[in-house]
Structure formats: structure tokens, C-alpha cells
């Protein structure tokens, strides 16, 4: 797969996959079932609008399935030069290690991010969160903030500090 080589310089030191909370795929499956049931029910009652409803509900079902598949988890890759965090096809953040100044272990709470996925917080941080649990908040490039879910906060912070001793751990 081509995405494994994007923005990587040198050998991979750390690699992690953080799947989305199971609530999301279950919700998507239930929504698709509801849309299919709506099509079946409506086509029985109203023969004239069967095709229109089938296209409408089928299109939304495919959209929800794509969204669920696309945002199924966060992929974290650390090399000696770069930290790459990827969430779906279109959301990749690549941060050179020399730009990172602070590494902080936090909880990605609902109150702070109002859900999970790709979010912008009240403190203007960009967040790639998959649950309301462990996450890291990095400060880089003159006070820019980036948050992402991880299962290994301490290990990842320690690796970052070992690769760049100027990083402050909070």
C-alpha cells in the first residue's frame, strides 16, 4: 500500500493502529438497516416513488459505509525524523520531530472535542480522536496544537523525547 511510505524518512521506530470506538460502526450498520427498511416499506406502499427512494436511500447507505470505512482508525508512524498521523484518506499530519516542543498525555473528553473524528477544539487544536480515552497533545511550530488518540501515551512520549531531547513532557 502506497500510504505506508508517505512522509517517512528512515526506518520505522514506532507503529500503532488505534481503531475507532465500536459505537461508530454499530451506529452506521443500524442506520443502513433503517434506510433499507425505509426503502422496502415505501416501495410496498408507494409504487410510483420506488426508484427515487431506492436511489436516495442507496446513495446515503453507500455514503455512510464509505465514511465508516474511511474513518475506522488512526495510524501512527514514527521515524527518526518525522511523526506521521493518518486518519482516513484525506487527513494526514506529518510533523518533523525537531518542530515538536511539548508532549502532553491527556484524555480526549467529549466536553473538549464534542465527539470523535477530525475535530478542532476550543483551544484551536486539531484533533484526530477515535474515543474519549487516552490521547497525546503535541505543541509544535510556534504554539500550534495537535491531538491524536493513542493507546501508549507514555511510551510514545518517551520515544519522542529520546529522538528530540528538547521536547518537554507535561
Molecular structure report:
The chain has 170 residues and is α+β, with helices and mostly antiparallel strands. It folds into two domains: 2-20 and 73-169, Pleckstrin-homology domain (PH domain)/Phosphotyrosine-binding domain (PTB) (PH-domain like), CATH 2.30.29; 23-70. 35% of the residues lie in helices and 34% in strands. The protein has helices spanning 23-45, 50-70, 110-113, 153-163; strands at residues 12-19, 73-79, 82-87, 92-96, 100-107, 117-120, 126-129, 134-140, 144-149, 168-169.
Short description:
The protein is an alpha+beta fold and about 170 residues long.
- By CATH, the superfamily of the largest domain comes out as Pleckstrin-homology domain (PH domain)/Phosphotyrosine-binding domain (PTB)
The proportion of residues in beta strands is: 25-35%
Computed CA radius of gyration, to the nearest angstrom? 20 Å
Order of helices and strands: EHHEEEEHEEEEHE
CATH architecture of the largest domain: Roll
Count of discrete alpha- or pi-helical segments spanning 4 or more residues: 4
State the assembly state of the protein chains.
Answer: single chain
Using the coordinates shown, work out and report the CATH topology of the largest domain: PH-domain like
Apparent shape: elongated
CA(first)-CA(last) distance: 36 Å
Number of domain modules: 2
Q: pLDDT below 50 for ≥5 consecutive residues: which ranges?
A: 1-6
What's the level 1 CATH class of the largest domain? Mainly Beta
Helix/strand/pairing class, anyone?
A: alpha+beta
Helix content: 25-40%
The major sheet is characterized as: 6 strands, mixed
- According to DSSP, the number of beta strands is 10
Overall pLDDT: 84
Spatial order of strands in the largest sheet: 6-7-9-8-5-10
Amino acid at each position: 500500500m502506497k500510504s505506508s511510505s508517505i512522509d517517512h524518512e528512515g526506518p520505522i521506530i514506532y507503529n500503532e493502529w488505534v481503531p475507532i470506538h465500536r459505537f461508530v460502526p454499530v451506529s452506521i450498520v443500524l442506520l443502513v438497516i433503517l434506510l433499507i427498511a425505509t426503502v422496502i416499506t415505501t416501495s410496498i406502499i408507494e409504487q410510483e416513488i420506488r426508484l427515487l427512494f431506492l436511489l436516495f436511500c442507496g446513495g446515503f447507505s453507500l455514503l455512510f459505509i464509505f465514511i465508516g470505512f474511511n474513518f475506522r482508525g488512526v495510524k501512527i508512524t514514527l521515524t527518526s525524523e518525522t511523526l506521521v498521523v493518518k486518519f482516513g484518506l484525506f487527513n494526514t499530519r506529518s510533523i518533523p520531530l525537531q518542530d515538536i516542543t511539548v508532549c502532553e498525555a491527556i484524555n480526549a473528553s467529549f466536553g473538549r472535542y464534542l465527539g470523535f473524528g477530525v475535530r478542532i477544539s476550543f483551544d484551536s487544536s486539531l484533533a484526530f480522536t477515535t474515543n474519549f480515552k487516552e490521547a497525546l497533545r503535541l505543541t509544535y511550530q510556534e504554539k500550534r496544537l495537535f491531538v491524536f488518540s493513542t493507546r501508549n501515551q507514555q511510551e510514545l512520549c518517551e520515544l519522542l523525547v529520546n529522538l528530540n531531547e528538547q521536547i518537554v513532557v507535561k
